[in-house]
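Supplementary notes for students who missed Thursday's class. We covered one full example, reproduced here. Read the sequence, then the structure, then the short commentary at the end.
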Amino acid sequence: MIVKNKKYDVLVIGGSHAGLSAAMALGRLRRSTLVVDAGKPRNQASEHANNLIGMDGIHPDIWRDKARADLKKYKTIEIVSGKVIDVQKIGDSFKAQLENGQEVQVRKLILAYGIKNKLPDIEGIWEHWGKSVFHCPYCHGFEFRDQRIGMVIGANFAEHMVPMMINISKDLVLFTEDADTLSNEFRDNLKRNKIKLITTKISSLESEESELKYIVLENGEKIPVKGIIVGPIMPLEMNANFADELNLEKDEMGFIKADMLGETSMQGVFAAGDIMTMQHSVLGAAATGQMAGAGVVGQLSQEEFN
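Structure (token representation):
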């Protein structure tokens, strides 16, 4: 990784759906931008990006390749593979150090480095992640319509997600170990909707020829399922610590607080993608990236005009 310049208008940390969309907005308004991408997108295990109008079902890598190809005509955009290892605020600008030792000075930052996938401690779950184990009803639920779906979800999210999943399949099984915190009304609704509640700890997943077949409980019981949706596991874990190093404000769930255009509690620092919203999807990430890019352009333009 060798960057061409020492000064840029903007540094975008992260080059997936949010970061590349931010770069598009910046390129359209001809702002000099460096995008540094570590090459570990959250959806790298998935073969399809769904709920993406116009490109529904596209492979995420193909989307990223197309996005990078689109950006080539914007000569103010530079994309490199690698990591940013340090960011410091110096007056009204920022100094960033790259993993190869190079330093760049930028006027604005867009943080788009995403979050880490966190899954329950269940043997075999990672082998099915992004295929028959998923986290988003909109992104992967439709592919399991009218089939038996296991919901491995903490009680704090179950009351929100179970009613949503009924749209996809009525053959649901809820697995939660903290069922004692579920409301009586919710329990009654589970029975009314014929949704089985299992509180026994899950020990492993069992498959045949790479196809998920069973959720295996600690007592040895096997529950047949075709797919599994997992709920969020808190606390949130990001792919980088720049939000904490810059003392950015976060909400109670650990997401970076940002306004409508993505600006955080520190002027000149913007956030996009999964690190600043609970709505995790390709299109959602791209939208917040575009908004952050537009927010940066607006701020730079006003500063220069005034």
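Commentary. The chain has eight helices and 15 strands. The chain has two domains: 7-117+235-305, 125-230. If anything here is unclear, bring it to office hours.
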